[in-house]
């Protein structure tokens, strides 16, 4: 947990593309590209299931996630296209499916907003500067809630609950670098590799 290295890597990393309007792959797209298992720009429920299994989620959670995520996001990412029972999600339009009551770390175009990311820890990391406890995470989620946005509340809670359960350390802390990696999708690749290496052993 090197606090200084975190701040440096944020300012100089691929995540700070807020001002780069011509970056064809924004950070929100990178966040979901792991689940596009065949890299064709479309995520089907079977791929969502495979992605969740690859990062260590059980069959039940992976199944429920595949159904709700694809059913919830498919039409939003396919404007002007007919309804499809295959519930495909188009990666290039994922910013159109951004739910309410979120942290604001992604802007409306799906770009990363460094100040919003830092704000999470400035406001809520009271015990350790570069990590969130379970209670601090709950307070953070509650602070994001918009009035009567029940769908956004549920989506936000589910996302953060899964991240916390899978990635907290032995002291129950969710580290800043882990959250940052979740935002740009690199965390999922790392988790999948770690799970695969454990299987080989």
Automatic annotation (TrEMBL):
Region Disordered: start-end pairs: 1-21
InterPro entries reported for this sequence: Caleosin-related
Organism domain of life: Eukaryota
Transmembrane segments: 52-73
Keyword entries, A-Z: Membrane, Transmembrane, Transmembrane helix
GO terms for MF: calcium ion binding; monooxygenase activity
Any Pfam family matching the protein: Caleosin
Coiled-coil stretches noted in the UniProt entry, renumbered to this chain: none
Compositionally biased tracts (Polar residues): 1-14
Signal peptide: none
Protein family per UniProt: Belongs to the caleosin family.
Protein name per its UniProtKB record: Peroxygenase 4
Organism of this sequence: Sesamum angolense
